[in-house]
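> call design_seq(struct)
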């Protein structure tokens, strides 16, 4: 069992990123390896180029994302941790797969339509074609499983379609068809100022999100000032119907405490937010404080973080090179 997943290098990760993705990766690292499997996590810097980003920001974000993953619990001695650019086989295989994928398949990708919006003609070719690079990212390592959210399931289906067509066209079982690994525990974390909007860095209000680099005092203040309603907490989840801010805070508490939301309600039923918010703030500080401290130490030596990426990339290249050579030989490119 080999699990492969990537994350784009963005700066200033927040609580939603941590609970919705990074925390799941750490749990996956432990669970998969306990089953004798392998985990590979990469910084998707090539995917980060589909929209303009200043070179200095790209370089800084790649190091900061790597440091954040390590600070949160990804162990580069146990998981293979690298960035795409250091493994050129990702780009090479992507081009080969471009000649297997069909234009009609890419035209059906809903994320391109969403991200390009009304400016489809002005969007980059990379933005249109990046699902093929995503396919290469996982097929290159014969990944058996890929963690996906609802918004990525279509891309994994495309990867399976490309793998199937390649295997059929060349009458060889070259590629493994990766299966989705969907974590029911991955929560959708909403804004602290609007329970109907996803927590996002693009929100102009700093009080809408908790950043992993926030101080203990700032974390506590943001939860203390989080939008709520005047009602007490109910005994069951049904009682949160129509109360998006209350539901969001319960979801956050449950995700950080590794408990079911219903269990959290059982503990706090009948209490108001005057009692619940301090408990939530204390839990957040206890959870995020150690991550921030490790992250700060790692970023004090960015050169070492880069060396960690290179060591991981060397392992990844050792796996990728024979696979790419097999594909090239299958296609008649290596004789």
């Amino acid at each position: 069992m080999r699990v492969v997943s990537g994350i784009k290098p963005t700066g200033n990760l927040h609580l939603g990123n941590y609970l919705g993705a990074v925390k799941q990766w750490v749990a996956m690292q432990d669970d998969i390896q306990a089953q004798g499997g392998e985990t590979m996590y990469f910084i998707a810097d090539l995917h980060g180029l589909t929209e303009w980003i200043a070179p200095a920001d790209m370089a800084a974000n790649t190091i900061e994302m790597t440091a954040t993953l390590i600070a949160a619990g990804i162990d580069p001695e146990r998981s293979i941790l690298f960035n795409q650019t250091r493994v050129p086989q990702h780009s090479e295989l992507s081009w080969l797969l471009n000649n297997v994928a069909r234009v009609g398949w890419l035209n059906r990708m809903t994320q391109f339509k969403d991200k390009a919006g009304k400016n489809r003609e002005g969007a980059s070719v990379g933005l249109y074609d990046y699902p093929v690079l995503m396919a290469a990212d996982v097929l290159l390592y014969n990944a058996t499983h890929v963690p996906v959210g609802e918004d990525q399931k279509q891309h994994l289906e495309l990867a399976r379609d490309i793998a199937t067509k390649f295997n059929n066209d060349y009458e060889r079982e070259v590629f493994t068809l990766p299966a989705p690994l969907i974590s029911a525990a991955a929560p959708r974390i909403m804004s602290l100022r609007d329970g109907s909007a996803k927590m996002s860095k693009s929100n102009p209000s700093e009080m809408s999100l908790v950043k992993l680099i926030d101080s203990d005092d700032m974390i506590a203040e943001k939860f203390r000032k989080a939008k709520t309603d005047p009602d007490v907490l109910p005994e069951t989840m049904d009682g949160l119907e129509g109360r998006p801010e209350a539901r969001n805070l319960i979801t956050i508490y449950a995700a950080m405490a590794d408990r079911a939301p219903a269990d959290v309600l059982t503990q706090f039923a009948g209490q108001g937010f005057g009692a619940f918010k301090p408990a939530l703030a204390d839990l957040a500080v206890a959870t995020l404080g150690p991550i921030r401290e490790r992250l700060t130490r790692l970023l004090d030596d960015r050169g070492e973080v880069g060396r960690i990426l290179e060591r991981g990339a060397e392992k990844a290249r050792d796996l990728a090179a024979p696979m790419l050579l097999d594909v090239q030989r299958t296609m008649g490119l290596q004789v």
